[in-house]
């Protein structure tokens, strides 16, 4: 095995690790030669402390693996995990167990962060590496100078072959390996077959953005199994069409559709990240009107860039990193304001608009321009004005609209028809490349599609649709179940739920404390969890939930378990406005009296003053329903739904506001806590 890696096998060419060898080959290898291979593999200078740490790890492993000289197994040093932007110190495939070893050389204790780190590595391989799906993956934290701990394999609440992390020092590591081997059935793992297993992660949007910005491709960080639509196909097709538009000196608008969590944002970030140099004639900008998403991505990428520069031995101020990120990802309103201030074409020929269906209609845009910008008589919708900005280029221009279904949640959001109407009536030179799924009812675009269907400017392309949710990697039918639930298609919802529950736990309770306990029990490592509620959920204050207290999404999504402002603390809650476009591993959705079941249909309410008032406008009813659609599709691994019992002594929280919804959810087969 060492010879294969050394002589450039197909697997070795993928640069997934710095050094690999069979156990027998490793025991015979000169330590300096191993360090040389690792140093050559690294993309930046290695300081003496890192070399010394490697030498100590090698010495320790050589000593404790001596009894296994003839065993079936292999070692992989500095094993790359693109989704997490990290490398595992050592993966040891030994007989019938995969051990994940994270070394803290010289450490005298077992920090919580280090335990979570090695746990995250094990879970990543278990969930996303084919060779690890059906075998035990045991995480071990090795703090070389720490005290001894009780070593015992414990599965915890999960039975997927990833036990709770073991904590050991240099002397007890051999005992940890022995216990792992004794605990699991002796079904031998073929190291060659294991290392050929495909790695197809499903990253969060924050993880994906970090990986792309660090130089990984969509192929490195996305699924491409038989059950998923390949993100790479859509991204590459879009890139080819954009290049062809430039070569022909044309102007074109592209509409990419997808179910919630399918990876539309990832496609947009990938295209923008391919061309980040201003001298590049395909220089692109990713634009979003989703302020929380932009803020979270800005801060996450800036922090990650600072950390990577420091790891390479350099220095980078956080302010500098933030400035660079803001050229790559921008708030669409800043782009709009720059175009208002100058009649010149923007520097970018390619503008990618995420959540394009949320752009403002004419009334909202005109009102905003008058109130906030002092521009009277503004007579363009936001889509029309944004197209006109890119249209200022004399030669060519491209707009990419990334479109979600059923995601309009705010007043004045126009849906996709406004973009189509603007192109049809104002920009006769522009070609249209459309996903066939724009015909679906959730996009509310039939009238405009009928108006342009016979135009020679229109091109339909199946590759512009992403059909499979990548967010809920444990079950691709979560979004389908949620859509059926909200449409009150109950038999179909019940059928969909039955396929979801085996791999994606959903639970139902009337008690918030029970839900919090369940979340904490489910999450492992740094898996993120939090409470989400509707922005109209005004009568949850008796449960210490006040939606009027605005959370900072950067802190809520990015800070650690020790930070009271983070989602982990389960004190601050986020609404649909803070979480749209983002996700958590585990969510608690708390249902309030704003959406009630009454006689087989939904009733919609808004709390004003001291009482609930019925929402009568169709568009506002749709916003409320979409708010719950967003909340119920934020989880990647599972969720708990809390429907409070209400109070007979409080007319604003009458049990009748809550009981029917609880009964409906229970009747579908959601297990109670």
What does it look like?
The strands form four sheets. Strands 7, 8, 9, 10, 11, 12, 13 and 14 form an eight-stranded parallel β-sheet that branches. A six-stranded mixed β-sheet has the order 1-2-3-4-5-6, sandwiched between helices. It has a four-stranded parallel β-sheet with strand order 15-21-17-16, sandwiched between helices. The model is unreliable at 1-14 (pLDDT under 50). The radius of gyration is 27 Å and the shape is globular. 49% of the residues are buried. It folds into three domains: 2-196, no CATH class; 229-290 and 329-466, Rossmann fold (3-Layer(aba) Sandwich), CATH 3.40.50; 478-667, no CATH class. The protein is α/β, with parallel strands linked by helices and 673 residues long. It contains 24 helices and 21 strands.
Features:
24 helices; Rossmann fold; 3 domains; 673 residues; disordered N terminus; alpha/beta; six-stranded mixed beta sheet; globular; eight-stranded parallel beta sheet; single chain
Secondary-structure blueprint:
Elements: H1 2-6, E1 19-22, H2 23-28, H3 31-41, H4 48-64, E2 73-81, E3 86-94, E4 97-104, H5 112-128, E5 137-143, E6 166-168, H6 173-183, H7 191-196, H8 205-213, H9 231-247, E7 251-258, H10 264-274, E8 284-288, H11 291-311, H12 318-328, E9 329-331, H13 332-341, E10 350-354, H14 362-372, H15 382-391, E11 397-404, H16 417-426, E12 430-434, H17 446-452, E13 458-460, E14 465-466, H18 478-486, H19 490-500, E15 506-509, H20 512-522, E16 529-533, H21 553-558, H22 576-579, E17 584-590, E18 595-598, E19 601-608, E20 611-614, H23 618-631, E21 635-642, H24 659-667
Parallel strand pairs: 4-5, 5-6, 7-11, 7-12, 7-14, 8-9, 8-10, 10-11, 12-13, 15-21, 16-17, 17-21
Antiparallel strand pairs: 1-2, 2-3, 3-4, 18-19, 19-20
